[in-house]
Design brief:
alpha+beta; 6-stranded antiparallel beta sheet
């Protein structure tokens, strides 16, 4: 029974994770290359449900490219080693870990074989990227923070990114503030309602922290034109 509950949680949080198949192949457009320290955001339509069937999901992802209609649900750090791309992030499935980008793409593949929408950002000042990557690696092995708390060593996705991108002067690039999970009309996106129900936790609305939705608006970041497609 305990094993079954864990499986449901993983499926709910990570978009019905599927085993890796031949469709999980990264294709990067030639105009830009991913660099060490780039930040990968995952977004889905505001009304996306983890219980949607594959046809509905496909239509919603295709028809909601405008950021105002999108909910940023995850953020990860990209690390480049020679010609290989790695991901450092915090998830329920892996905890805090570093693993190949292909594994990440397989984890986030939807039931219909498509991806959610990915957006890659880069710091305008990349002079301390090596330091940020090493700081991120120090958290590898930590648990995923289901409580969304800043007062423990467990990390949720955007908390890990914030802690990693700490300047040599001990200044955070990404500041915390009351977390706001709501959309403009005051409702919660369906995804957050379903997610926190699955992990049996209240939505930590107004708790001090940081969300991907807040992080992506940081003026220290710029958008990188890199496409990751099936």
């Amino acid at each position: 029974m305990k094993k079954n509950v864990y499986s449901v949680l993983v499926i709910g949080l990570f978009l019905f994770l599927l085993s890796c198949n031949n469709h999980c192949v990264q294709q990067i457009e030639p105009e830009e290359r991913i660099q060490k320290g780039d930040i990968l955001f995952v977004k889905l339509p505001m009304d996306y449900s983890i219980y949607d069937d594959s046809t509905t999901v496909s239509t919603k992802v295709a028809d909601n490219s405008n950021n105002k209609n999108m909910n940023y649900i995850h953020v990860a750090i990209l690390d480049v080693e020679k010609d290989d791309i790695w991901v450092i992030d915090a998830t329920i499935k892996h905890g805090v870990d570093r693993y190949p980008l292909d594994t990440f793409l397989c984890d986030f593949t939807l039931q219909n074989g498509k991806y959610p929408t990915f957006e890659i950002m880069r710091l305008k000042d990349t002079s301390h990227i090596a330091l940020y990557i090493e700081q991120a690696k120090k958290y590898i092995g930590c648990d995923y923070d289901v409580d969304f708390s800043l007062d423990n060593m467990a990390q949720y996705c955007s908390e890990l990114v914030r802690n990693a991108y700490l300047s040599p002067d001990s200044e955070y690039i990404f500041e915390v503030s009351p977390m706001d999970f709501k959309i403009n009309n005051g409702d919660y996106p369906t995804y957050w309602i379903e997610l926190f129900n699955l992990i049996n936790k209240p939505i930590p609305q107004d708790k001090i922290g940081i969300l991907p939705q807040q992080m992506i608006a940081n003026t220290n970041l710029k958008t990188i034109d890199v496409k990751i497609n099936l």
